[in-house]
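1st attempt posting a full record on here, be nice pls
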Amino acid sequence: MLIVEDRESLRQLLREFLQSAYPDASILEASDGAQALELCRNRGPRIVLMDIGLPDANGIEVTGLIKKMLPKTAVIVVSQHDAGAFVERAQAAGACAYITKGEVHRQLLPAVRRALDGAPADH
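the predicted structure (as tokens):
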């Protein structure tokens, strides 16, 4: 799994949350789009948690690049933006789920489980 989030404190919370549910999972972290693309190229994660507001890129655009590079990788957008336009753009870029940061505690693990099982996730 790869967590792409520019705020270190939130990356740490997401890592701890995922590690508690998946103790054997390898969890990588990236703080910007360039680092995320490099890790995807070199490590090929099965799941990417993607923030939209990255310092060097738009996370939705990075999602599209990841899906072109790794079509089987599931990308779950985790964003503070609740607007429908962001959801539609994330879906169009290939994201399998869109979760607002306020709903992470409730929606993230079910979305990850669906992605690992290969089932379509809710948007």
